[in-house]
Amino acid sequence: MPKQTYIPYLLQLFRQYGYDGATLSKISEATGLGKASLYHHFPGGKDEMVETVLDYLEQWLGENILPALRSDGDAETRLRRMCDRLSELYQQGEQPCLFAILLLGSARDVFHTKVERLFRTWIDAIASVLIADGMDEEQAKHRGEDVAIAIQGSLILSQGLHNPSPFQRVIQQLPRSICHNSQ
Description:
CATH topology of the domain at 55-180: Tetracycline Repressor, domain 2
Mean pLDDT: 93
CATH superfamily of the domain at 55-180: Tetracycline Repressor, domain 2
Radius of gyration: 17 Å
Largest sheet: none
Number of helices: 9
Number of strands: 0
Structural class: mainly alpha
Shape: elongated
Helix content: over 70%
Low-confidence stretches: none
């Protein structure tokens, strides 16, 4: 099977255990591949596995978030579409963000550049929506960062409380509050 087949298992595993906690034994168990087969599919080991998952998330961003933000409609409608896609990705707040997990452990230096690029792409796309809605560029950039802060913070809080309600509340209120405050 192609290595893309294993992405959902790897994504879940790295979300659950982080880079350091996702041992080859756990990866082997989750994917059903023996250690030799893991290295056949991922000669670069865990680093290549994480890169493959990050590539998938980058593709997902390009196929789901960016089109939602570039679609027709006013800013609130486009931000709502983005939030709907994010809610799907994070299973309505039940799943943590892999980016945050990767930035906390020993993998931080290895994957920081790619994670930073993904965050910047997302924030810039949000800012573009707000600029098109009449907001000045600097404020729009700050608001894009505020969106990322609110979503990431709500994911962390939801995980910490074992309750997805904070994430769900943010996802529900964010499009309107960002646009309302832009006036």
